[in-house]
Design a protein that fits this description.
This is Aminoglycoside phosphotransferase domain-containing protein. InterPro entries: AGP_Transferase, Aminoglycoside_PTrfase, Kinase-like_dom_sf. Residues 74-197, 286-362 form the Aminoglycoside phosphotransferase domain. The chain is an alpha+beta fold and 487 residues long. The chain folds into 2 domains: 12-153, Phosphorylase Kinase, domain 1 (2-Layer Sandwich), CATH 3.30.200.20; 162-486, no CATH class. It is 35% helix and 14% strand. It is built from 15 helices and 16 strands. The strands form 5 sheets. A 6-stranded mixed beta sheet has the order 1-7-8-6-5-4, sandwiched between helices. Helix 5 packs across helix 12 (394-419), helix 8 (261-276) packs antiparallel against helix 10 and helix 10 packs across helix 14. The radius of gyration is 23 Å and the shape is globular.
């Protein structure tokens, strides 16, 4: 096996492309439920099929296009946030494969953009990414879900080997990763969105290709490489949790591609506004979650905070792009789960999980710091836990940041030393804009305002808007809003 799939051409699209991609709301809500621990909506599999049933269906589905899989061994491999994975092996093959099934949180677009992005990265960088053999971006098949067949990459997740890696190996590993990220950063883009194959351009572009504006003359040479008229790829509709998480996928509004950061931010703000006004606070109804119940309980305060946040946008995000707004293809989950390592040599063997990887303004990458090296996974206590009387975790966050600074310091220095700057921020006004835009972007993340509005209130107060002004008038809510009260 292996020679059956020569390393030429694009992955095989088994499904037929189609115009209508969004399932009815009464179907898609089945894949979301209130997370018991923290009370917000999470993705889950509603069926109770055993793995044997899945494996038999996968085998039948693959037999027609790939008869070689008739006597392959198919086993359950792992679960992801949106996915179930099954390994496919055979004693006579020189390669192993993964079959990944996905729940429909952003039908068609998430699968199409993920496959095209991996192929784009494979063609234009040396970053080791999985090679996709075939895929279906439609659920019109025996499984009833979209799927991907790809080569299995060697190595173990970084989380499994980190504690056994000596410090020099850690430093060398992240210096090597920085070299690959530097190649990604060199692939500059003149708009923001997601990468797709050119043959679906009419389904992912809001404006047909011939009518789209060409890149600005001021953009670096090499921008939009292989993108646009005559290219194999297009930059189209954005696929990001800010745009599809829970009910957001149904809301009208632009999904890009966006020509300016202001357009992108305005679209995110509009979706946040729709989401906090479209709550499901009653247990038992579709889309119910405990977080919506708490948002509804504080509805007036939440709307007030949102209006203050929205009013800041024109002050913090100018209508024209600056040097920090150059488009960059950024994998925002370079975590201990998605970086694979050779356990003997401690070399990088693969970067996996490319779903929802978008072209974004360079400042949003926070200097392209990998998730594993950052402190950005830490979140203040969410609204639902504060309502239950759980104390804020501010001290735990500060203590863990100190611990990680000591543990990761050498690796961080090696990474940034090898990567270098992403854009020119020598001008003081550029640095001020970056700080303001990064702060605003943080508030617009799914896990920020929608789950932790009192944290946003503190941020607003720090930026000149007194979001806590009415705190003292609401004694009954004082215990539920300690983050705001401490701002």
């Amino acid at each position: 096996m292996g020679s059956r799939f020569p390393d030429v051409g694009f992955p095989i699209r088994v499904s037929q492309t189609q115009k209508q991609h969004i399932s009815p709301a009464d179907d898609l809500h089945r894949y979301w439920r209130s997370q018991a621990e923290e009370g917000y909506l999470e993705r889950y599999w509603p069926d109770d099929l055993g793995h044997d049933a899945w494996i038999n269906t996968i085998r039948r589905l693959l037999l027609e296009p790939f008869p070689e899989f008739a006597d392959a061994e198919i086993k359950y491999f792992a679960n992801g946030t949106f996915n179930r994975l099954y390994s496919i092996t055979h004693a006579g093959w020189n390669k192993s494969y993964l079959f990944r099934v996905s729940i429909p949180v952003e039908p068609f677009f998430k699968t199409e953009s993920e496959i095209a992005t991996m192929e784009y990265v494979r063609r234009h960088t040396s970053m080791p990414v999985p090679r996709v053999i075939a895929f279906s971006s439609s659920d019109d098949n025996e499984l009833g879900y979209e799927w991907i067949l790809m080569e299995m990459m060697p190595g173990e997740p970084l989380r499994k080997v980190w504690n056994t890696m000596p410090e020099p190996a850690r430093v060398e590993f992240f210096a090597e990763l920085a070299g690959h990220v530097k190649q990604l950063a060199a692939l500059r883009f003149s708009a923001f969105g997601n990468i797709y194959f050119a043959d679906v351009a009419d389904q992912v572009l809001s404006i047909p290709l011939p009518q789209r504006a060409q890149p600005d003359a001021g953009v670096d040479d090499g921008a939009d490489k292989d993108i646009g008229p005559g290219g194999a790829f297009v930059l189209g509709r954005i696929v990001s949790q800010d745009f599809f998480f829970d009910k957001r996928v149904y809301y009208p509004g632009s999904r890009g591609p966006f020509q300016t950061t202001r357009e992108l931010v305005d679209a995110r703000v509009a979706l946040l506004g729709k989401r906090i006004s479209d709550l499901s606070p009653t247990e038992g109804q579709a889309w119910y979650c405990e977080n919506d119940r708490e948002l509804a309980r504080h509805r007036d305060r939440v709307y007030e905070l949102f209006d203050q946040l929205k009013a800041l946008v024109p002050q913090l995000v100018p209508p024209d792009n600056g040097p920090e707004d150059v488009g960059m293809l950024w994998h925002d989950d370079l975590s201990e789960h998605n970086l694979l390592v050779d356990p003997a040599t401690f070399k990088l063997t693969a970067v996996v999980d490319w779903e929802s990887v978008s072209v974004v303004p360079a400042y949003e990458t926070h200097d392209a710091v990998p998730a594993f090296l950052s402190d950005r996974d830490w979140r203040p206590t969410p609204l639902t836990l504060l309502a239950r009387g759980v104390p804020p975790n501010d001290e735990a966050i500060a203590a863990d940041k100190r611990r990680r600074a000591a543990e990761l310091g050498p690796a961080r220095r090696a990474y940034f030393g090898a990567l270098g700057p992403l854009y020119d921020d020598a001008a003081p006004e550029t640095r001020l804009r970056v700080r303001a835009k990064q702060g605003l972007a943080k508030q617009l993340e799914i896990a920020s305002f929608q789950h932790r509005p009192w944290w946003t209130a503190a941020w607003l107060a720090e930026n000149g808007v007194d979001g806590c002004l009415r705190q003292g008038e609401e004694d009954a809510d004082a215990a539920a809003e300690p983050e705001c009260a401490r701002a």
